[in-house]
Prior knowledge:
This protein is α+β, with helices and mostly antiparallel strands.
Amino acid sequence: xxxEFGGNAAHIDGSPLKASVLAxxxxxxxxxxxxxxxxxxxxxxxxxxxxxxxxxxxxxMLSTEIAVRLIEDELTRRGLKAxxxxxxxxxxxxxxxxxxxxxxxxxxxxxxxxxYAVYVTLDQALQGPPPTDAEVQAEFDRDPARxxxxxxxHILVVTADEAKGIVTELGTGADFATLAKARSIxxxxxxxxxDLGCAPHEVYVPEFDxxxxxxxxxxxxxxxxxxxxxxxxxxxxxxxxxxxxxxDDIVNALAPEPFAALQDWLMQQWGERTIKVDPRYGTxxxxxGRVIPLGVTVEGVTMGSGPAPTTK
Length: 312
């Protein structure tokens, strides 16, 4: 299957989206296979045995370009621009996701950061105003105990016998932090002497959460089995919080999931806007909001090589 990237790849309400954008993006990922794997879950850009890109990757890229155009158009319509703080956050997120995989493509890295910033900007605009002080207070008053904190440390091992041995060692005076650093397979907390910090109810897996909230403070517990292995733990503190102490957590809990509002808005746009994909690149799935690659249907059934190219 041969691709040609002249003309337009799609139209949105009659406005063209140039195919050359796809060619430029393919060139970036062709030069950065590690970034390709991060973004698309594969290190192979091309169809097997050819120098032509995988139709599924082309379709994914075009789906993204359509979504970006819709979002940018809406920000323009609303007269909104990404704030500098949002841009800085976006750059950090791109760096965290790709690591050094895009270090050789600084211009495209900036494109991704700019796009993430517009996603965040429109998502925040669609969410509406934050909860009022009265709403936050009402959420706290509904059940203040939900915001209590328990502080604990643990040592995680593979077998019950290992855990029992550690309980015995602690009972004869061994230092908890030293054992955690040397023996815990939870290397994150192990490096901190097993310290898990403080957390509210239902943060941990059920078996561990029950031990943290029901066991005595300051007493070694274990073995406690969970899906991760066998825990030896000590609850170091358990305390209630005032409204002021819990307020930030309540505000975060009341906030919608990141990008949920944006996704709902996009789904509405897919149904309302006229989106036409050039048959060189696939077909538009209005319900799924994506380009279906050449050679497949929405159900994934093979249909051959697809229609003849056009450049209109």
